[in-house]
Amino acid sequence: MFARIIKKIDGENVERIVNLNQIQFIDVGYFTVNESGQKFDVGYDQGKDDPDCRRIYTLTIGGEQINLISNPNSKVVQAIEKIYREALTD
């Protein structure tokens, strides 16, 4: 499956078509935003349980990293979240 992603390179937005089947790994982080709009990273234990926290996915594809913030309106993020939900766990 291919996805169109906008990535900032050298301060400019660049449109990329990436092959999601080539993802080597996905790092999942969590963050929250305070009332003044400042972003604060939080750990896994807080992020997984706090409904106000959002996920950020860092995809590694061909040695390149692409960050995607959770967004229920994004078809690309929906595809990543499907991978997340279906991932095997111990």
Can you tag this structure with a few keywords?
single chain; 90 residues; four-stranded antiparallel β-sheet; 2 helices; globular
Describe this structure in words.
The mean pLDDT is 91. The longest helix has 12 residues, at 75-86. The strands form 2 sheets. Strands 4-3-5-6 form a 4-stranded antiparallel beta sheet. Strands 1-2 form a two-stranded antiparallel ribbon. It has 2 helices and 6 strands; from the N terminus they run E-E-E-E-H-E-E-H. It has helices at residues 44-49, 75-86; strands at residues 2-9, 12-19, 23-33, 39-42, 54-61, 64-69. Helices cover 20% and strands 50% of the residues. It is α+β, with helices and mostly antiparallel strands. The radius of gyration is 14 Å and the shape is globular.
Give the helix/strand layout:
Blueprint (H helix, E strand, L loop, with lengths): L1 E8 L2 E8 L3 E11 L5 E4 L1 H6 L4 E8 L2 E6 L5 H12 L4
Antiparallel strand pairs: 1-2, 3-4, 3-5, 5-6
Query: Based on helices, strands and strand pairing, what is the structural class?
Result: alpha+beta
Number of strands: 6
Fraction of residues in helix: 10-25%
Tell me the fraction of residues in β-strands, as a range: over 45%
Topology order in helix (H) and strand (E) letters: EEEEHEEH
Oligomerization status of the protein chains: single chain
N- to C-terminal distance: 27 Å
What's the helix count? 2
Average residue-wise pLDDT? 91
The whole-angstrom Rg is 14 Å
Molecular shape? globular
